[in-house]
Specification:
It is built from 14 helices and seven strands. The protein is α/β, with parallel strands linked by helices. The strands form two sheets. Strands 5-4-3-6-7 form a five-stranded mixed sheet, sandwiched between helices. A two-stranded antiparallel sheet has the order 1-2. A hairpin with a 2-residue loop joins strand 3 and strand 4. The radius of gyration is 33 Å and the shape is extended.
Amino acid sequence: MEGFDLDLSRPPPLPGTVEECHRVIEALWRALGEFQQIQARVEELEEQLALGSDNSSQPPSQDSTKKRAERKGKRPTGRKKGAQVGHPRHERALVPAEAVDEVRHYFPHGRCECGGSVAVRGFRPHQVFDLPEIRYRVVEHRVYEGRCGCCGEKHQGRLPDEVPRGQMGPGLVAWIGLMTGRYHLSLREVEALLEEQWGLKFSLGAISQSQIPLQAWLGPVYNQIGEAVRKALIAHADETRHYRGRSIYWLWALTTGQMAYFLTHYSRGKGAAGELLGDFQGILVTDRHGAYNDHPQDSHQYCWAHLIRNLERIAGRKGQAGEDGERLLRAARLTVHCGKLWQQSHYPSDRYRRRLERLKALFRRELEQAAQRHGDNKTGRSCRKLLDDFPRFWTFLDHPGVPMTNNTAERALRPYVIWRKTRFFSQSHRGDCFRPMILSLVETCKRLKIGVYQTLRTICAQGMAEGEVTFRLPLLEPQPLPVASP
């Protein structure tokens, strides 16, 4: 035989010499290697098909139909939908009498059917709420001019500083900013709503131009939010894609319980993260994105929800990798459960802390064993990366009061993600600057529970009248973190 090629479609001929035996063995090894490569590729593709919002950063809206059907829902309680028998009543409170616009009285007949007279002893209030028939308000400012009867010099009156130089007053400019930045309407929808609701006709260009001065007026308040959030003791950071035409940018968010600061940047790297954080020295809560890793390790908390999704992906693999992933996943879920109990108890006891310390040791041990067992394959590399990041998952133990998840930042980004999905992308640098400013104001006002429209109207009125905005948001001083009892 001049050579030997392994053909799996038929049994190979029996080798007659030692050299032929070696060729058969080499062919078998080659076939085994090719089979292992094909098997690894199949497993990789199956893993990609199994990706969803429960084991990756993919949003739930992109889950497949099968994934949505498999998604865990609430257990049925067996009760009917709606209010349950015996639930506390929730009724609209009556408006005080001095705040009622009009009172109409309805009296019973003065005489009963039996012939007796009816004495009025009281009344039952029934308040009806309705919207007034609205109409825009026009103020005409007449600027007169004249000439001196002696020298003929021309004289002309001047508009007061508080009168807008354009055709839009502060209320209208603030309303357009509210519709675009808070309710995410497009300029065409704002144009249509202005005409339908108010009877006002403005061109798309005029509506767009009205937001140019608003961007400048928002600057001082935007800077106030940025300076305040960087002085917070705890802040959450996250980022999402921002598009300008076909170019990909990034919208970054740094948030607390009462503030939300947004920033657009062309990069998703450490430079952009450094620009977002500035001189922030507090405890930072993030996902596992490496751009934030320049922040000191002892004041950096990784999100456990992201960790659980990573472990779900490992647990979905076949064989030993899946078994190791299941053990790590159970340990992570126990940690989150125990951590929540510890936080709900306001840290008065050391019992939960001792449990968390035991879970921490167990989690590290499981990671080390899995990393050693799987060597340099995908599961082994993932476990070694988790070991490198291990201290950043347990910062909440050293600083009670630090959340275990990054939900605060993700909730702040969600309105923008919806805006991005339902409206056109930003088309200019001005749009890139306006969106983070208006989002910062809107989200901070929502957290402070103050009206967005009234805030915008105050800012616009100051900007038009004085040329400088002195308004500032009522931000509170950061509160100290709770301390665990020894």
